[in-house]
Fold Alpha/beta-hydrolase.
Amino acid sequence: MYKLTFALFVALVACAPAPQRGGGRARQTAQQQAAQVPQGISQATDGSMILDDTVNVNGLPIRFKIAAPADQFMAASGVPGAAATSPNGTMGVNVLLHGDGGQSFFDFPNQNVQANTMGVALLAPDPNLFWGGGQGLQRTDGVAHAQAVNDFIQTEMPQRVAFNNQAVSFTGVSGGSLMMSGFFIPAQMQNFPNSAVELNCGAMPPQVDFVNAATVMPQTRIHYQSTQSELQLLQGSIPQAVTAYEQLAADQGLTADQINTLQTVDNTPAGGHCEFDGQDFVSGVQTMLTSYSNVVQGGNGVVTGLGAPSNGQVLNGVVGNENLQFVGGRKRGAEDMVVKRWAQDIVEEDGDMTLLACDRVSC
């Protein structure tokens, strides 16, 4: 009986709010928890080197991960084997913006070099680790965050790694896709010629004035990837984004065939939010990133491991496919976009007792 009572006590304590001690100490935010995860230099799964560090951009703390062969790093980066003497390299870049809660930043699913493209992931400078701040479709800091992403790539990356600044592409995941489609593409894509964007499990129409659409739309590749049981919050916004960007391209004089070459959409897998493999958020996102070059970098459009009933071919032109058909999806919205499993193992010291940090996913 004593063992059972103690076990129940421990379980309740683990999910209880942090006690207010020492001047009203509050429970840590996701951003504060993330700061406890060590930064530094490590090795990617393909043998590349990963530089994990934080820099201040426009007054915002931008934590970043850059994965590239060691010899592509600048000597000032501190990466062993760094040999680049000029920031003007030959490798492209795939910059990933994670979903709400930061899971894909810590997973770093684009860390392996693919089609001569290095991987970069950026952590949202927001207490909740939401790209664009706010929540759901209301991204109240979208303008500032989009500017910070642009400025990081333009001014900070060249100090650390050599890359081709004419071959920068992007990946959004959930909330990161909302920030990309709502704010970054319309305001900042003018600075990235011949770019490509993969918008995974999230998208919305431009939320700010579009800058230089005449140049951006004819040369920007966009792919929307969703699932049949997407969150209902996004079942409306993704088709709206598809229609809005298709219209932007048509307004610049692009024909239906030209638009279908540049803009594609798919939601054939039967999984839920970001479960592209029909199983799980993390493995689903990894499935899409493993086939990134096949989707938006001139490949055959086949995503290996996509969940049934999909045949894996995702390159469906948006013209005529704007009205995506969904079969279900959870009615709740913004809170279901938050995935923060990485924080489950963070330990907080509280007096003489060690408490597991509790987040909205696990407790």
Summary: The chain has ten helices and twelve strands. The radius of gyration is 21 Å.
